[in-house]
């Protein structure tokens, strides 16, 4: 038995025609399920009975809503998976200034390189706030390192 792996299922789910056909078949089957069960268990009840039509109609509407929500969620997950794959790729980064080269661009072109912060901000929902660590403070500003900060007097 050949089972599909998750990547094949996601690829299969991208084909809208297949999605629509599968959803339509399931919705039609679920809408007729009450009538089909009654046809087997109670053959004296007509297939197009008034109650079968009401129950089938309501079941069909509920299934349409559920499949719509499921489709939206699958699209959201596919987008998230795409974003994760983008972030998992190997990034060319300058060993000195830490700028990142845009994927697929020319390494010799200055416009191809962008600051690390700009890349991460563009590719994720992360935002940056700059500060300075104690090691860099000691190296770059030795006159301020080790001195106590003078705080402003509290307003009373």
Q: Would you write up a description of this structure?
A:
The protein is mostly helical. It folds into two domains: 6-88, no CATH class; 90-148, no CATH class. The chain is built from five helices and two strands; from the N terminus they run H-H-H-E-E-H-H. The longest helix is centred in the middle third of the chain and has 39 residues, at 50-88. It starts with 5 loop residues before the first helix and ends in a 16-residue tail after the last helix.
**Would you report the number of β strands?**
2
Amount of helix: 55-70%
Calculate the mean pLDDT score and round it.
80
| Unreliable runs | none
Tally of structural domains: 2
Distance between the termini: 78 Å
Shape: elongated
Class by alpha and beta content? mainly alpha
Helix and strand topology:
Blueprint: H1 6-13, H2 16-41, H3 50-88, E1 100-101, E2 113-114, H4 116-123, H5 134-140
Antiparallel strand pairs: 1-2
Helix pairs in contact: 2-3
Summarize the structure.
By secondary structure, the chain is an all-alpha fold. The protein has helices spanning 6-13, 16-41, 50-88, 116-123, 134-140, and strands spanning 100-101, 113-114.
Key structural traits:
156 residues; mainly alpha; 5 helices; 2 strands; 56% helix; 3% strand
